[in-house]
C-alpha cells in the first residue's frame, strides 16, 4: 500500500484535558526549502506512559523532536508540552523535561562531572550528591573526572542520559538514547528507564530505530512515515488490530507445497514462510478459520494451529511500507 | 535571575578556560607588558647608577608614545582576536552541538546570547585591565623618575605633563567602548557561520573593506557627494575616530575630554551601532534553527 494512502488512525489516543496528556502535537508542519521534513503530524502521549516514536530513516522523527523542543521554528501547527504551549512556554516546559536529542554534545574540554554540574545547574540548583547519584546510576563514576572529549560513544550517551535525569523530570524525551551502546549497556539503560518510570511515574517519549527495544519498553507507540502520523495508540491494541500470525503444523506426510499454493491464493493471507513442520502465516484479523477450512477442503491434514505473538516490526513494516529502518 | 547568573558564569568559564584565551590576552598587550618590564629595568638602573642626563621632554614623549602605540595596536589587532573568541563561543558551539544542549535547558535564547556577549566583553575587559596594569607600572616609574632632581627640566610649559591615571582610565574606557561595537558586529556575523575561522576572516574582510571605503570617501566625495553620505553610515568610522592620533593626543594633553565632541559623538555612535548590531543578533537568534 503506498504510504500516502495510509490514513492516520488513532487507537485509544488521549483526547481529554491537558493534565492527562504529557505531550500533544497537532497539524505540525516544517519544510527546509523545498524539502518537506514534517508534513502533518498529529499525536498525543498520555501522562505516565512510556511511548515509542517509530519511523523509517528520514521520516521526520528528529525534526519533530527539534520542533517540539523549540530548537527549530515550525511552519504551522500546535504543540504542547506538559500543558505548556510550545515554543512560547518553552522555559516552563523544559524545567520539568529531561531531553536527549541525537548524540549528546557537551563541552569536550570539561570533565563529565563539570558538564553535568553546569548544564544541570541551569535546571535547578544541584547538590554534589545528586550529581554523584546520577553518575553512579549510569556507571560513569570512575570516568567522571575525564574530559568529555575522551569518552567513547556509549559513555557519551550515558552522560547524556544522566544529564536528562538530573533534575528528576516529569517528562523524558529521548532520541536514540542507546545509540552506540553495547547490548549490556542497552539492557542497563532499559532497566534505568523502567526504574525511573516505576518510581517517579515519569512519562517517557522515546525515539529509536530499535523496534525490539520499543516493544520491550513501551506501552504506547506513535508511528510516522514521510512526515505524517500513520498510527498511534497502545502497543497491545495496535498489534491486535493489524494482523495475526499463526504457525500451521501439518500432519506427518502433509503436502507442504500444496499448502503454500492454497495460502497464496487466499487474499487474507499477507505473508507466509516455511516452518520446520509447516508454515508460518501472517493474515488479516479473523481470517484463520477460512485458511484452516481451505486447507482441510484441499485434503491437507492440519495437526495444529498455533497462534504466534504479534510483532511490532511486522506492523511497522506494513504501515510504513518499508523494508529498512 | 539566578539561572542567568549561572549561565553567565558558565559562559565566562568557557571563554577563559580555553588555552588560547591566555595567549590572546598576552598578544593584545604585548606593548604595555614589554614597556612595563622595561620600566622596571629602568627603575633599577635609576636606583643604582642613575639615569644620566635624561630630559623631562623625552620621558614625556616616551609615556605618550607608549599609550599611543598600545591603543593603536590594540585597535588594529583586537578585532581579530575578538572575532576568534566570538566565533568559538557561537559558531563553533553551534557546529559542535553545544548550543543545542544549552537550549535544551530552561534558559531563553535572549539570555543565552546576552550571556555569550557579556562573557566576551568580560574577556575584553580582562585584556584591557592587563594592559592597564602594565601601563600603570610604567606610569609609576615615569612619575618617580620625573620627580627626581636628577632629571633635566627642559619643559617650562605647565601644560606638558605625564599622562595622569584618570586620563589613562579614559583612554582604556574608549578602547572598551570602541571594541564593544566590534563584539556586537561579530556576534551578529557568528550567527550565520558554523566555523570560527571562516567567520573571523569573512568578518575582517568586511571590516577592512568598510574602513578602506571610509578612508577613501573624502576623495570619492569630490566626484559624487553620495560617497560621503554612504560613509556616514559605515559603523567603522566611529571606532576609528576614537583611535585617531589627534583624539589620543588631545586626551593626553588635556585639550580634549570624553564628554566633549568629537569624542562624545564618536562614543555615542559606537554605542549606538553596538546596540543596533546586538538587537539584530537577538532578532535573528530567536528565529535561528538549531540543526546540529
List the main descriptive attributes of the protein structure presented here.
heterodimer, A: 325 residues, Rossmann fold, Alpha-Beta Plaits, 2 domains, 7-stranded mixed beta sheet, 4-stranded antiparallel beta sheet, 11 helices, B: 292 residues, globular
> How many beta-strand runs of chain B?
0
| CATH superfamily label of the largest domain in chain A | P-loop containing nucleotide triphosphate hydrolases
* N-to-C series of helices and strands of chain B: HHHHHHHHHHHH
Q: Number of helical segments of chain A?
A: 11
Largest sheet of chain B: none
Q: Which chains have the largest interface?
A: A-B, 29 and 26 residues
Spatial order of the strands forming the largest sheet of chain A: 1-11-10-4-9-8-7
Q: How much of the sequence of chain A is in beta strands?
A: 25-35%
* Quaternary class: heterodimer
Count helical runs of chain B: 12
Summary, kept brief:
Chain A has 325 residues and is an alpha/beta fold. Chain A contains 11 helices and 15 strands.
Walkthrough of the structure:
The complex is a heterodimer of chains A (325) and B (292). By secondary structure, chain A is an alpha/beta fold. Chain A folds into 2 domains: 3-239, P-loop containing nucleotide triphosphate hydrolases (Rossmann fold, 3-Layer(aba) Sandwich), CATH 3.40.50.300; 244-309, 2-Layer Sandwich (Alpha-Beta Plaits). Chain A has 11 helices and 15 strands. Chain A has a 7-stranded mixed beta sheet, with helices on both faces. A 4-stranded antiparallel beta sheet of chain A has the order 3-2-5-6. In chain A, strand 5 (76-81) and strand 6 form a beta hairpin. In chain A, helix 3 runs parallel beside helix 5. The longest helix of chain A is centred in the middle third of the chain and has 18 residues, at 183-200. Chain A starts with 8 loop residues before the first strand and ends in a 5-residue tail after the last helix. By secondary structure, chain B is mainly alpha-helical. Chain B has one domain. Helix content of chain B is 78%, strand content 0%. Chain B contains 12 helices and no strands. Chain B starts with a helix and ends in a 5-residue tail after the last helix. Classes of the chains: A alpha/beta (325), B mainly alpha (292). At the A-B interface, helix 2 and helix 3 of A face helix 1 and helix 5 of B.
